[in-house]
Design brief:
There is one protein chain. By secondary structure, the chain is mainly beta. Helix content is about 5%, strand content about 50%. The strands form two sheets. Strands 1, 3, 6, 9, 10 and 12 form a six-stranded antiparallel sheet that branches. A six-stranded antiparallel sheet has the order 5-7-2-11-4-8, with no helix packed on it.
Length: about 190
């Protein structure tokens, strides 16, 4: 009787658990580690700060990562971070939100320079990164969630994949009902293959 592989084949081996003991330690690293070593892990971020009057208001920051058509690369979102900082708030009610849009449009964008996280690498990102102090319009809403004041960090490990001709738009927004100082910050980390 032939020994058929019912769970996997030579090209896709069956995943295994590692036993990590103090006598014989093993190490595993996420894809970001090898992307960084290859000089293909990048980051960009922006902040919008506002001093709000008696009637309150909002602070919005949007970052858009666009993979140009014909780039020959695919971008993978590694990490989303940032947050909303509230200071000098006088008995105000606060609301915050994070929104992710596919292929949204920006109003009055500013171009950001992506930084390579491997300081020894001269590689530059092929992606176009822009920011805006307005929420994006159009596109397809992928995720929308409320945020509390303070920092945020979501490790995506490549869950969001941006092929050429597509864009990923992240908006962080905060609002106060009365006077205060409000700052919204958004950062993206991604790798390119």
């Amino acid at each position: 009787m032939p020994n058929y592989r019912i769970f996997s084949n030579e090209n896709k081996p069956l995943p295994q658990l590692q036993l990590n003991t103090y006598q014989s330690p093993s190490a595993a690293a996420p894809a970001e580690a090898s992307a960084s070593q290859a000089g293909r892990l990048f980051t960009a971020g922006a902040t919008n700060s506002a001093t709000l009057g008696l009637l309150g208001g909002s602070s919005i920051i949007t970052i858009q990562l666009t993979n140009p058509a014909g780039s020959g690369r695919t971008a993978f979102i590694s990490r989303i971070s940032g947050g909303i900082n509230v200071s000098l708030s006088l008995l105000s009610s606060f609301s915050g939100a994070m929104t992710i849009i596919r292929n949204g449009a920006l109003t009055g964008p500013t171009t950001l320079t992506a930084a390579n996280l491997n300081f020894a690498s001269s590689n530059t990102s092929l992606m176009t990164v822009r920011s805006s102090t307005s929420a994006s319009t159009g596109g397809t809403s992928i995720l929308s969630m409320p945020l509390a004041a303070g920092p945020l960090e979501y490790n995506e490990f490549g869950d969001f994949i941006i092929p050429s001709g597509q864009s990923f738009t992240l908006t962080i927004s905060g609002a106060l009902s009365v006077a205060g100082v409000l700052a919204s910050t958004a950062n993206l980390v991604w790798w390119e293959v």
